[in-house]
Specification:
Length: about 290
């Protein structure tokens, strides 16, 4: 199991220089990944950083760290523009980008301010069509698309990503809602949480993995990504899961992301202290679902 960080892109983490510094220190202290939220706005009192600009600087400042968004609400992006950005970032990093996608969370924080689609069903349709467009453009082969929300005239998008067959796509979903997990089964991984944003139990993870496995059409690697708390000393009001991380690895989790909730008002220095302690135990366990270990 690999271990990474899971940070908002607002509040004290809106400082791009601080975020790059944290990513560099994470790489130096044995962490495997650095994943940030993708919000345009959180509330009127919080500064916000563009995640793609931050990740470009992270790519240029590190050499082994995997990184990406967790997650990008794809319905509010033009998929061809995102395809160009992600391919460029994949080349800049030597093939270390992972794209997390989903419907998006807390629409009142940004879709109430900007003219974005409020209907979850429409956003789901846009998400599926945009994913198909991304994969087609990333292929480097002639591609065209005609859907209810997006159209692409016949074109060829070059260069291809460094990673093959494509940039990995992780799909977000709240368990036990089934539709996001049916979608995730068609891609490369799932960012799993409980309804409302909690960390699933080991038993729930096993149920979720079984659900996805029944719907996968091939045995290609598939990542199961859990975000949670492994060290209570850095998470006020949460007892943490220091003894459970290895159990998650044994259950088939391939990535553990250490979560820092914005409501807890963490400072950059507090996150740095946690980074310097190193990743939690369990990171070398062999996974059971074909994911990257």
């Amino acid at each position: 199991m690999r271990c990474g960080l899971f940070l908002p892109n607002f509040g004290p983490f809106a400082d791009p220089n601080a975020m790059v510094s944290l990513a560099v220190e994470a790489e130096e202290n044995g962490w495997d990944g650095f994943f940030i939220w993708d919000h345009l706005q959180w509330d009127d009192d919080q500064p916000v950083a563009d995640p793609w600009v931050v990740l470009s600087a992270v790519a240029a400042s590190t050499s082994t760290l995997r990184f990406g968004t967790a997650l990008t609400p794809l319905a509010r992006r033009r998929p061809w523009k995102l395809a160009r950005e992600t391919v460029t970032l994949d080349h800049l990093s030597g093939g270390r980008l992972i794209l997390g996608v989903g419907l998006g969370y807390a629409p009142e924080f940004e879709r109430g301010s900007f003219p974005e689609e409020p209907d979850a069903r429409v956003r789901a349709q846009k998400l599926d069509q945009a994913l198909e467009i991304l994969a087609g453009l990333w292929s480097g082969e002639p591609f065209e698309f005609s859907g209810s929300h997006f159209q692409v005239s016949r074109t060829r998008f070059l260069p291809k990503p460094v990673q093959s067959p494509r940039i990995p796509v992780w799909v977000g979903g709240w368990w036990p809602n089934k539709r996001p997990y049916e979608r995730a089964a068609r891609w490369d991984g799932v960012l799993t949480e409980l309804v409302g944003g909690g960390t699933p139990s080991v038993g729930q993870i096993k149920d979720m993995i079984a659900f996805v496995a029944e719907r996968r059409e091939n045995g290609s690697p598939f990542d199961v990504v859990v975000n949670g708390v492994s060290d209570r000393d850095y998470h006020r009001g949460d007892e943490g899961h220091p003894s459970l991380v290895e159990e998650y690895a044994d259950a088939g989790v391939t990535w553990w992301l250490e979560r820092f909730e914005p409501d807890d008002r963490f400072t950059v220095e507090q996150v740095r202290e946690r980074i310097l302690k190193g990743p939690p135990a369990g990171r070398t366990k062999t996974t059971s679902n074909g994911g990257a270990a």
